[in-house]
Amino acid sequence: MKPENNHFLKYLEALSSSPFFKDSSTGSIKELLHSMSEEHWNAKSFKSSTDVMSTFHFIVSGRLKVYKSNPDSGREHTVFVLSKGDVFDVLSLLDTKPHDVYWEALDSLEVLKIPMEQMRHWINKYPVMHKAILYYLGDRMRQLMDVATDVTLHSTLVRLSALLLKNINGETRKLELINNLPNDEIAGLIGTTRAVVSRHIQELKRCGAISVSRKQINVKNLELLLSIAEEKYIP
Fold first, then answer.
1. What is the DSSP letter of 151?
2. Distance between CA atoms of 76 and 45, rounded to whole angstroms?
3. 184 preceded by cis ω (within 30°)?
4. Who is most buried in 56, 140, 144, 154, counting CB within 10 A?
């Protein structure tokens, strides 16, 4: 992408403000952006690992679901929901092998992409990125460990309450990353079914922890929701 591009400054700001590139200099990020191109995914469009393994992506806007699927049962499990400032796919960047997951745009998705080989060359040129990749992978591994233990140790109601808490903006008390997602998408995040999520949402409504309007979940009593997530209160 050339500096003459109308969106060059917008994309430069997006890259610079991402936690993934927080230790990179403006000059090195500009150099990276020169090798990138923009791409738009329509909402609900999806790709397999083979579709994205040859390119490294940076999300400018929108949300992306990363999920695994059982072809026999049709059941899905959402591994992550990525959003503005996130990158994918780091695993393919490191080991050159396909990552056995699917990718689906939850909204209209705007991304920047670069061939994997060029991204690897840029990272080797700027070793500060080695630490950034370790931190990024460490954070993702911690999230996966939490999900694995939560499924074993906690009820679906507790997992749902904890998921809502993790995605609440502390100042506005509004959901952000998972706001307006349908119940089947929320179910995929906590390893259950749409029917179970719907039942638990009604329970949380009845006890006054949340309200629901226009497919939006609003937190009415943060302290109560916290006590449910900590298994100190049963609705």
1. H
2. 16
3. no
4. 56
Measured distance CA(132)–CA(163) in Å, rounded: 26
- Tell me the per-residue pLDDT of 117-152, one tens digit each, with 9 for 90 and over: 999 999 999 999 999 999 989 988 888 888 878 877
Residues 6+ apart with CB under 8 A from 174: 168, 218, 219
Residue (of 7, 81, 64, 16) closest to 37 by Cα position: 7
**CA dihedral of residues 88, 93, 98, 100 (deg, nearest 10):** -40
Mean pLDDT for all residues in the chain:
89
Under 8 Å between Cβ of 196 and 152: no
Element holding 157 (H helix, E strand): helix 156-166
Interatomic CA distance for residues 160 and 189, integer angstroms: 9
Six token digits for residue 164: 């809502």
Dump pLDDT digits (tens) for 215-224. 788 888 989 9
Task: Select from 2.60.120.10, 1.10.3660.10, 1.10.238.10, 1.10.10.10 the CATH code of 154-229.
Answer: 1.10.10.10
Question: Are 100 and 92 within 8 A, CB to CB?
Answer: no
CA geometry: angle 106, 90, 41, nearest 5 deg: 30
> Nearest to residue 216, comparing CAs of 187, 186, 171?
186
Q: What are the sequence ranges of the domains in the chain?
A: 8-150, 154-229
- How far apart CA 217 and CA 211 sit, in angstroms, is 6
